[in-house]
Amino acid sequence: MIILKKAFVIILVFCFTFASCFSINYIMRKTSLISMTADNSRVNLVIDPGHGGIDAGTIGTDGAKEKDINLSIALILYDFAMVSGISAFLTRDGDYLVYGENDDKTRSDLYNRMDYINSIENSVLISIHQNHFDDEKEWGMQVWYSPNDDLSKILADNILKIDKLNIQQENTRLNKRSDNSYYLLYKSQVPSVMVECGFMSNNEENKKLQENVYQMQLAYSIMLGFSEFLTEEL
Q1: Which of 4, 48, 178, 205 could form an S-S bond across to 185 if both were Cys, CB 3.0 to 4.6 Å?
Q2: What is the pLDDT, as a whole number, of residue 33?
Q3: Chain centre to alpha carbon of residue 41
Q4: How many C-beta atoms lie closer than 10 Å to residue 27's C-beta?
């Protein structure tokens, strides 16, 4: 009986959280569209939580590590994808760099991530990262997109559009085309984006990025942006 009560409370909290951010009708409609489109297009979503292991990524104003926030958001996004009927894969699902059992550890884990992405047929890449800047006032999601596939910009624009609609209405940031500073995007031959969810150098945003509810909102916005991309382009 206690277990049932706890489960009921969890469900209520979950429903309340998303009802406060998104229209229930909109959620159900988009989830249905995602599922139908996924069946038709057979897209394989590859979710890449940036950094990991000894590579902590950027450090927040309170010492928080980017790698941990990236993984948390990526795991939630993975769950949303699976519930929506989309075939999804993670480049990592724990706190480690990406190496196989017999891999040469002198080889960059970025090469291994790229090999993994290329090994999955009909893939679309969403890499999860956090931003950092000297000016602590900078904030907001921004998406970088691969220069090698025209669909990458469309995916990036859809993700940022949904984010601005549902979470960050005052966000004025614009998406950017990747250069060779972003290896996965620069080398990728499939639709690929890197979602910089927020600035860990901004004290207020850094705190929000560590909150589970906010991570869920970010992941769901990314999922809806991916849904728009699927229904419009594939």
Answers
A1: 178
A2: 52
A3: 20
A4: 15
From the list 179, 171, 178, 177, the residue with the least C-alpha distance to 197 is: 171
Query: What SS3 state is found at 128?
Result: strand
- For residues 132-149, one letter each, b for 16 or more C-beta atoms within 10 angstroms of the residue's C-beta and e for the rest, the string is beeeeebbbbbbbbbbeb
Phi, psi of 108 (to 5 degrees): -60, 140
C-beta of residue 147 within 8 angstroms of C-beta of residue 194: no
The structure tokens listed for 25 are 């009708």
Q: Where is 123: in which H helix or E strand? A: strand 123-131
Name the nearest CA neighbour of 69 among 163, 208, 190: 208
- Is 50 exceeded by the pLDDT of residue 20? no
Cβ contact 212:143 at 8 Å = no
3-state secondary structure of 193: strand
Confidence check: pLDDT of 126 > 50: yes
At residue 103, the pLDDT reads 75
Using pLDDT thresholds of 50, 70 and 90, give the confidence band for residue 234: low
Residue 100's pLDDT is 75
